Amino acid sequence: MGKLKIIFITFIILLALGSAIIISSFGSVLFQEGNPVPLMVSAMKLHLFDSDYVQFSKTEKRSRYLSKNIGDSQYDIVKEFMKSKGWIYEEQMGSGLIFVKEGKEAIVETRQYSKYFIIWDVQQALFTSDIGT
Questions:
Q1: Dihedral through CA 57, CA 98, CA 86, CA 48, nearest 10?
Q2: Is 66 within 8 Å of 43 (Cβ atoms)?
Q3: How many CB atoms lie within 10 A of CB 86?
Q4: Which residue has the higher pLDDT, 4 or 20?
Q5: 29 has pLDDT over 80
Q6: DSSP symbol at 128
Q7: Do 85 and 102 touch, CB atoms closer than 8 A?
Q8: Range 31-40, long-range pairs (CB < 8 A, 24+ positions)
C-alpha cells in the first residue's frame, strides 16, 4: 500500500507542475477567446506537426486560424494563405490586412494570442466563389 500511495502522490505533483507550466505560458490569455480547449489543441498541433497554421473554428460568417508568431514576418503566413485563394495583399491598417481581388476589398483581422501565437479571422463571404476549387 505504501508504494501505491507514493505513486499517487508523485502523479498529483507532476499533474500540478504540468498545469502550472501551461498556466504560466498562457495564463493571461487563456480565456480571452472564450473556450481555450480548441486553441490549446491547435497550439499543440502547431508544435507537433510541420504546419504553418491551424483552423480552430468555422462558422457561417468566418473561419478562425492560429499561427506561430515569428517576429517581423508574422503576417507572411496570412498573406500566403490569401494569395492561394486569389487575393492580392495591398496594405496593413492597424491589425487588419487588406487584400483585393477583382475590384473587391477584404480585411483579415489579426491579433496576438500570446507572445507565441497569432489569431486571424477570415470572413466566409470572401470564399463563396471558391467553393469547389
A1: -40
A2: yes
A3: 14
A4: 4
A5: no
A6: G
A7: no
A8: 32/113, 33/113, 33/119, 39/66, 39/113, 39/117, 39/119
92 touches 78 (CB < 8 A) = no
The pTM is what? Answer: 0.70
Closest CA to 110 of 100, 102, 99: 99
pLDDT of residue 131: 40
The average confidence (pLDDT) of the chain is 82
Residue 96: name the closest of 107, 88, 86 by CA. Answer: 107
Percent of the chain scored above 70 by pLDDT? 82
Residue with cell 501551461: 22
Query: Residue 131 has which C-alpha cell?
Result: 467553393
Decide the pairing of beta strands 62-68 and 117-123.
antiparallel
What are the Cα distances from residue 101, in Å, to 15, 29, 83, 122? 50, 34, 10, 14
Q: In whole angstroms, what is the distance from residue 84 CA to residue 8 CA?
A: 51
